[in-house]
Amino acid sequence: MKGIPETSTTLLRDIASDTGNARWGEFIARYRPMCHRYLQRHFRSLDPDDILQETFAAIAHALPDYRYAPSEKGHFRSYLVGVVRNKALMALRSKERDDKLKSAYAEAVSSERNGDCADDETWRKSVFEIALQQLMADASIHERTKQIFVRTAIRLEPPEEVARSLGVSRNVVDQQKRRTLAKFRALVAALKGVL
């Protein structure tokens, strides 16, 4: 079928092995166009490059345990499109949550300005929400770093699980969380001086 790459078991085997790094360029060149077309057709509101980065990181993590058996599990391309779809759906859910947070922050800022906050706890919560909104809007912070911060510091997901799902080391997760938390605390401190 036109535009759908044939599966190369040799390529999958090489990529899955420790010595396969040299063939990643070939793997991406083979499968990226198909995945990109799928995203453009089904998930136009998302940045395909972000989704594909997450997808290929997940594939790199999964391939050592993946066994190509088309008669049992279907074709590799179907597996790959499934991973792309899951990453896109996760990004959409995250985008929806971010939109809801932004709406809540705007409401908190409006309430703060109107003097509607009845107690210190509500005021503190508003400050934290506004600081989080500013942090998430900061274009100088990489999206993966923001995702690590939200997942580990706010949702309290285990750092090992976050590291595994993003294809990075636990040390990277801890460092990025620590640095972002310092920025967040600085924003909170600055807001407390203004509000």
* Beta-strand share of residues: under 5%
The succession of helices and strands, N to C, reads HHHHHHHHH
Rg computed from alpha carbons, rounded to a whole number of angstroms: 21 Å
What can be said about the biggest beta sheet?
A: none
Cα(first) to Cα(last) distance is 61 Å
What overall form do the CA principal axes indicate? elongated
| Count of alpha and pi helical runs | 9
Q: How many β-strand stretches? A: 0
Structural key phrases:
mainly alpha, Rna Polymerase Sigma Factor, Chain: A, Arc Repressor Mutant, subunit A, 9 helices, 76% helix, elongated
Short note summarizing the structure:
The chain is mostly helical and 195 residues long. Helices cover 76% and strands 0% of the residues. Helix 2 packs across helix 5 and helix 5 packs across helix 6.
Walkthrough of the structure:
- This protein has two domains: 9-87, Orthogonal Bundle (Rna Polymerase Sigma Factor, Chain: A), CATH 1.10.1740; 117-194, Arc Repressor Mutant, subunit A (Orthogonal Bundle).
- The chain is 76% helix and 0% strand.
- It contains nine helices and no strands.
- It has helices spanning 9-16, 24-42, 48-62, 70-73, 76-114, 120-137, 143-154, 159-166, 170-194.
- The longest helix is centred in the middle third of the chain and has 39 residues, at 76-114.
- The mean pLDDT is 82.
